[in-house]
Each structure stands twice: as C-alpha cells, then as structure tokens.
Design brief:
By secondary structure, the chain is mostly beta strands. It has 9 helices and 28 strands. A hairpin with a 6-residue loop joins strand 18 and strand 19. Bound molecules: MU-OXO-diiron and calcium ion (2 copies).
Length: 637
C-alpha cells in the first residue's frame, strides 16, 4: 500500500461492514455489464451498442505474444514466478553501495552516515543504463521509508537530529553498477566509481520558467535556483540522451510545523500541505521543513528531476517546465516531428493527466545537444469526452500557458511560473477532467498508443468528481487502464481517441461494472493497477499496489502482483506474485530482454508478518528481484 493511504481507516474495508452489495449491479450479464453499470449510475445509455463497443475493445483471445504459464493468486510470504523462471534478490534496503559503507544491521540503530552509503528504502521506479555487454548502471528510486523498521523504536519516539538525517538518507535515488558473471547472473559491483546516493539533502538546480521566481526563494537560497534534495521519488523515466528522470510524488508529507496551525493559501492546501503532517518529523531538526518558518520551501518539490547517472559528480536538475504536482512517472517519447513529449500523471483522487511538449527538437546525431530539451516547452492537461452511451470517445489537450485559456492575472496567475507551481489550480481553471488517480503512463513501442493506470478512487461520485468517461464507476476500489491514440500518430496534436483497455473487478463476486471488463477473469483478477511498462515486443506489464486483504470485495486476488497483457487481444496473464503486505513497483529490462528487474516495495508494512527476502525471523526489506528464464529465453515470450 502506498503511504498516502496508510493511515486511512476507510482504506481497510476488511475492518468494516462491507457495502459491496450496494456497489454491485446484480442481474446483468458480464457482456452487458455496461448496461447494468449505466443503470446503477443513473445514466440513460443504449444497451447494445455500448456493450458491443467495449466488448470489442477488450475481448480476450489467445495471445501469441505471451508464452508463460500463469501463476495463481498467492498469500504466501514469497516472490513467485512462472514455471521455468527463476527469481533472486539483487539488492535490499540497507545493502552497502558506496565504498566503506557498513553492511546492513537490522537492529534499527545504524546511523545516518551508514544509511547514506547504503541502498535506500522502498525501491520504486528504475532504469537500466548499459555500460557494455555485461555491465550496466541501475538508477533506482527510494520512494520513502518505514519507521517501524528504520528505527529500533519504530518511530514511536521523537526523532533525534541524526535520525532525521537517517530518514532523509533512506530517501532519494540510488545509482549503482551491476555486472553479469559467466553464469549469466547479475550482481552489484559495490566498488564501482559510478555508485552514488542522492538523498533529501543533495544539492540540485532549479531550471526552467520557475527558476529564480519569488515563490521559490528562501532564506537559505535567496536566488531561488538551488534546492536541497529530492524525496518521495515514485516512478521514473529515461531519456534517449542517457539521463534518468525521477518523479517527486507525495512531497507534502514531509512539511509540518511545531505550531498547531499554519495558515496557507488554498492553492498550497490543495497539495495536502498542513502543520499536522508530522509522521516524518523532519521539521524537528531541519528547519526548512517547518511551514511556519519557510512557506516557500514546498514549492521547490513536486517536480520531475533529471539526473546524469554516468557522471556521479553531476548536479541533478529539477525540470519545472513539466509542472508541479504529485508526479507518478515520466513517459517520454520522441514524436515524429522531433519534439520530445512526456506524459505525466498526478496521483491523487480527482487530479489530472498532463503532457509536456519540448520547445526544441531532438537531435539523434548529437546527444549532447539534447541535454536541456526538458528545460523549456509547453504543458497541457487532458479533457475527456465520451461518445453517447459508450465508455470511449475523444479527448483534447488544453494548453497551460500564461495568458491563454483563462490563465490570467485576473484569475490569479501572475505569470507562467505561477501556472507551473500551481498546476493543479491551472488545470481546474481550464476545465480538465478529474481522474481516478493517474499512476504510470506507458507508450507502446509502435509510438501510436499510450496507456495509463487509474489506480482507484473511493471518492468518485462525490466531491465534484462525476461518474463517467474514463472514470465510469462510483466508489471505484478496483481501478482501470485507459488508453489513447493521438490523432494522426502525432503526440503534439491537441486531440486523441480513447477507450478503457481493462476495468479491474471481481467477477467471482460481482456482476456489471464491478466484475470488470471481459478480459478480467477469476484467474487473473487484481486491484489497483499502478506500475506499467512495455517491453520492446509490445507486451504490456502491469504492477499492482492494491488491497491485499484477500477478503470481501478483494477475495481471490491475494497479494500484490505483476501481470502481462497483450494489447492486441486484450488478454491479461498473471506473471508474478509478491510477499506479504508488499507493493510490486518498478521494472527494467536488460537490452536483450532476457532479464527483468522487478521491485518489491515495503514487504511487511505496518508490521504485517513478512520476513522477505531472508526468511526466518529477519526484518522484511524492500528488494529488487532479478528474474530470468532457466532456458535463457526472452522474458514473457
Ligand atoms: Fe508512488 Fe502513486 O505511487
Ligand atoms: Ca501507488
Ligand atoms: Ca506507484
């Protein structure tokens, strides 16, 4: 479970009387589920064209792309892969990656300096950068940390100054070299000069339209150009010019105050900032995290950060032109026109889906010339419309540029920097569609279709979040995957067509929309799709961050998992299952596609009984798994 939901009792339906009956649409066939769903939602839709339209989009057929035998749902404390595959841990939270760093010690008493030389916690998005046939760098996000395991006192005490520093060092990004030995096994090279830790206190440069603006100036940085650190790095992106993109998500959780109340403008409150967010306790010993003292500091977070993994001395660059929100990943593609296009989700209930188009064009012959392409460009936000009676339709990208579409001084936007810093407010101003928590975006290798996980949204149907379009279910606890096709294959175009590739659900318990689309079966069901990525052959890989109670409306789904889909036929097959109370997030393929690296994040969160990966009585640890085939074949084929 991602941390943004950890303390919300409403997110633990197994603890409550289930209201599942109210949500299901009894008495309709699955193939006609949209008719039932529409009736349940109080919509007036023609039944047959609607059912046909979605059935056509999602009807599964035998896949020639996918060759492995599905694994069953699991509640075991292990990482399970298909027959003929092997999975081994590569690295776990606390393993040393810098020279001189100590080995992991599970007592929880290691200090900040130790953590700063070790792999960070909560492995998330990652990218593979080849250095040669059998050598590569992995750049990996360390999204957050679990105090119940980080400290011997489990976070139940006020943190000391060193403990705040240790927490900050458990966050950020880890970059390390890996090599493949004669047996074909990948291992970490702990002595490599490339190895680097980037933490919540690593100096970074603010670039683009926001750099130097009054709203990012602070006492420590009166020029507003040099921020310290990155944290809550969720998912990632990779550029063809060899850099890594790390995306700052729930930055609001780290800002608090010793004061009971701090008055903040509503545009700041919209990001969840408030004095009472004290779980991380950083404000106790690092004054910049006290909102009462430094109200501009949070404006320096919530960005996409570009890192050159090949130069361990390089300064990471915050790319403000891509907007400030709770970034999930950064799905980058080169449009046929040569512009760099980056698709971006803002993971919060009822927030939005964005697209960045670079001002300048990509130059395949001169990678050095591409290095600042993400500094300047145009940001857009999506507005979806549905065909009459269908869960598919058209959409448009609305430009978020100062002076256009009502983004004017009269409406509260003094300049482009304000549009970008308060991108959420700008999106509302232009009438963007509220989404069911946009998570990862992935561009199909044919560069024509784009997919995005909408993980879930218990608030759909209330709070100004209407049911309809790509968000077709009230109290959406299962999630769906939307896909769109830019018109004429042009990612810079302002219009697109869309449908839903999959609607997750539970066909063993429900009918209608809550049973899911026709490609969801008793054998592959899951909830809360989150991580998403294509391999070169066009297989779509789906990772989940959902409810693992295996009870009530989630019965039969088991632990979080990874699935593989064929976008042509719609078939979805379960590939792997994770240990107890983990999330599966982060994936990277070796260029030959004979190895896939998969992230197992926070096994045993909230003291659930996991001992993954070491077993016995050991402390559970976030771990990257290396998965290969026994016959050395291509993953998934
Ligand atoms: Fe970090 Fe939206 O998951
Ligand atoms: Ca998530
Ligand atoms: Ca995620």
């Amino acid at each position: 479970m991602s941390q943004h939901e950890r303390f919300d009792p409403e997110d633990h339906p197994e603890l409550e009387q289930t209201d599942f009956d109210r949500l299901t649409t009894k008495g309709v066939s699955r193939r006609n589920f949209l008719r039932g769903g529409a009736a349940a939602m109080g919509l007036f839709l023609a039944a047959s064209p609607l059912a046909q339209a979605v059935a056509a989009a999602t009807r599964p057929a035998p896949s020639t792309l996918i060759g492995f035998k599905a694994v069953p749902a699991s509640t075991a404390d292990s990482f399970v892969v298909p027959e003929g595959y092997v999975a081994k841990p590569l690295i776990s939270w606390g393993d040393p990656i810098l020279k001189g760093a100590p080995a992991f010690d599970e007592s929880g008493t290691q200090n900040a300096a130790a953590q700063a030389g070790q792999f960070g916690d909560n492995t998330d998005g990652m990218s593979f950068f080849p250095l040669g046939e059998d050598r590569a760098l992995l750049a990996v996000n360390n999204e957050y940390t679990n105090y119940e395991y980080l400290f011997a006192h489990q976070g139940k005490q006020d943190l000391t100054a060193d403990e705040v520093k240790k927490s900050q060092a458990a966050h950020g990004v880890s970059i390390f070299e890996i090599h493949r030995n004669a047996k074909g096994e990948w291992q970490v090279n702990r002595d490599s000069d490339y190895n680097r830790r980037i933490t919540a206190y690593t100096p970074m440069e603010l670039t683009g339209p926001v750099a130097g603006h009054a709203l990012v100036q602070t006492a420590a940085d009166p020029k507003g150009t040099r921020a310290l650190g990155t944290f809550n790095n969720c998912a990632n992106g990779q550029t063809p010019w060899g850099t890594y993109l790390t995306c700052e998500e729930n930055f609001h959780k780290y800002f608090a105050s010793a004061q009971d109340e701090v008055e903040l403008p509503s545009r700041d409150q919209r990001y969840g900032l408030k004095a009472g967010n004290r779980d991380y306790q950083w404000y106790r010993h690092d004054e910049r995290f006290d909102l009462a003292k430094h109200p501009n500091e949070p404006h320096r977070f919530g960005w996409v950060v570009e890192i050159d993994p090949m130069d361990p001395t390089s300064t990471p660059k915050k790319r403000t032109a891509l907007g400030r929100f709770k970034h999930e990943n950064a799905a980058l593609t080169i449009d046929p026109s040569g512009h760099v296009v980056v698709y971006l989700g803002d993971d919060e209930r009822g927030e939005h889906l964005y697209k960045f188009v670079s001002r300048d064009k990509y130059n395949a012959d001169n990678q050095q010339a591409n290095r600042d392409l993400l500094a300047e460009g145009t940001l857009y936000v999506a507005r979806f419309s549905a065909n009459d009676g269908e869960i598919k339709g058209q959409g448009e990208w609305i430009e978020l540029s100062h002076g256009k579409n009502g983004l004017t001084a009269e409406n509260g936007f003094a300049d482009q920097a304000e549009v970008l810093i308060f991108a959420r407010e700008a999106a509302t101003q232009v009438g963007a569609t509220t989404m069911d928590r946009p998570e990862w975006v992935a561009v199909h290798p044919d560069n024509k279709a784009v997919f995005c996980t909408l993980t879930n949204n218990k608030n759909r149907g209330k709070d100004g979040q209407p049911v309809g379009g790509p968000n077709p279910r009230a109290k959406n606890n299962y999630g769906q995957i939307v896909r769109w096709w830019p018109h004429n294959g042009d990612h810079t175009a302002s219009t697109f067509d869309w449908d839903l590739f999959a609607i997750a659900g539970n066909p063993t318990l429900a009918e209608g929309l809550y049973a899911g689309s026709d490609n969801i079966t008793a054998d592959n069901m899951f909830n809360s799709p989150d991580g998403l990525g294509f391999d070169d052959a066009g297989r779509l890989w789906i990772q989940t961050d959902g409810k693992y109670s295996n009870k009530g409306e989630f019965a039969g789904m088991g632990n979080n998992q990874m699935l593989c889909a064929d976008p042509q036929t719609g078939e979805i097959r379960r590939f792997a299952t994770g240990p107890i109370a983990c999330e599966i997030t982060g994936l990277a393929f070796s260029p030959d596609h004979r190895t896939v690296f998969i992230g197992v994040q926070h096994p045993g969160e909230d003291l659930e009984p996991s001992h993954f990966p070491a077993g016995g009585n050991s402390k559970p640890r976030s771990t990257i798994m290396v998965v290969q085939r026994e016959d050395g074949g291509v993953i998934g084929a």
